Amino acid sequence: MSSVFTKIIEGDLPGRFVYRDDRAVAFLSIEPVAYGHVLVVPVEQVDKWTDIAPELWAHLNDVAQTVGRAVIEAFGSARAGYLIAGFEVPHAHIHVFPADDMSGYDLSAAIPADKTDPAKMDEAAEKLRAALDTDSEGRPR
Q1: Where does the HIT domain lie (predicted)?
Q2: Which residues in 21-93 belong to E strands, given as ranges?
Q3: Which of 58, 77, 111, 134 has the smallest set of CB atoms within 10 Å of its CB?
Q4: Nearest-5° Cα angle at 8, 31 to 100
């Protein structure tokens, strides 16, 4: 059965993509701890990050690091937070988000999807795409 992330990757559900290649994608979380909260996700649906092949895991971390640098540049945060939880969706993913303190590491404090400001979400995606030099689908320009 396809996960919600697979449905986003395949275009069956909407997503604000900021990065995409043949093995990994990065799109905004619909329940961000801060505007600019990105999920780095393998295209291949794997439930647990511990089950991902080492080569793919290395690639996902390269993408997460690249996205993290873009987060710092785009939002002026002190750091880019990095978190793996994986209980919400059975498809491995890395949370990368603007972090000025430890509050972003509490996913239970995220903005609910129905309370996010669509204009701020779109603005966050555009800032990240500009920093990453990617198009609206997350592909390199």
Answers
A1: 4-107
A2: 24-28, 38-42, 79-83
A3: 58
A4: 30
* Arithmetic mean of pLDDT, 75-92: 95
What domains, with CATH codes, occur in the chain? Answer: 4-132 (3.30.428.10)
Point out the residues that are catalytic.
93
Confirm whether pTM is higher than 0.90.
Answer: yes
Which residues pair with residue 25 across a beta bridge?
Answer: 20, 41
Helix crossing, 54-75 with 118-132: angle to 10°?
110
User: Which tens digit of pLDDT belongs to each residue from 36-77?
Assistant: 999 999 999 999 999 999 999 999 999 999 999 999 999 999
